[in-house]
Amino acid sequence: MYSFIYVARNDTYCGDAVLRLITSLKCLVTQTSRAGISYEIVIVDWNSHDPLFNHEYFKAPFGKADIKFVIVPADVSADVGVRNGVSEVHGFNLGVRVSQGTWVIRMDQDLLLGRKVFAYLLERASNLDPREVWWCSRRESHPVYMPRGMDGWFDMHKNPAEYVDANYPYLPLWTGRTYDDGEGAVGLFAMARETWHRIGGYHESLTGWGHMEVELGKHIAARFPELKWVNLHDPLECAIVHIWHLEHRCVSASTRPMNNTSFEERSGSNVDGTWGMVNFAGRISVARAV
């Protein structure tokens, strides 16, 4: 089983963050249903003023999707040093802790995965190699690149699976090129759940934004040379689209500065086994979409 893991928040970061999450989920559930793969969805809801599972979209049954919400309250967020914004490193590590799949896949709440991705997941489902770390960058959906401009951007939210499959070949790569490792923006990042546990997940000192996979790649190269970083750009045709934020000029640095690329040696939770917020287990709740 594959575990798709999101870290999200019910807020207005760069526009309507919940709309982007819902669009990503619509695409994911449609594509998994078509491909016939076994999966679960884990959404780590980080310090939302109103929990995401209260949103109208999750009131009715969401197809046959298995959606698990992990609720991180404000006091826990503050105790890990994040009073505003979101700690993606803690959130994704926590999501892996509570997941049950054999293979964990990091999802941003503004990503759309195309049919090519799920065909590959189906093909590999019976042949997953825990020595592999999967990576692929992404394409951009800025209206200026879309065949129908702003009309295309709104169409994307109505039928995201159909949109990404029809349009990804026409959309540019992030920064115009692909990457061999975590140096670029994340489209697909995945590995065996047991491997995530072995390496200690993301470095939990990186509570800002950016460079999480860069550090993880260096950590793997230094400590786990038997692991192989696999760039899936060609087999997937990079059929992964980032939902452009219309309010993309917003600056996250006011609440979440960019992470420094001069990484310190891992210490604390990342080496003593308490990563993924194990020490906060009694203060974190889990709910399912109903």
Report on the structure:
By secondary structure, the protein is of the alpha/beta class. It contains 10 helices and 11 strands. It is globular and about 50 Å long.
Summary, kept brief:
The protein has one domain (2-288): Spore Coat Polysaccharide Biosynthesis Protein SpsA, Chain A (Alpha-Beta Complex), CATH 3.90.550.
Q: Key features?
A:
Spore Coat Polysaccharide Biosynthesis Protein SpsA, Chain A; three-stranded mixed beta sheet; single chain; 10 helices; alpha/beta; 290 residues; eight-stranded mixed beta sheet; globular
CATH homologous superfamily annotation: Spore Coat Polysaccharide Biosynthesis Protein SpsA, Chain A
The value of Rg in angstroms is 18 Å
Q: Write down how many β-strands occur, each being a DSSP E stretch of 2 or more residues.
A: 11
Number of helical segments with 4 or more residues? 10
Total number of domains: 1
The run of helices and strands is: EHEEHHEEHEEHHEHHEHEHE
Strand order in the sheet with the most strands: 9-6-8-4-1-2-3-11
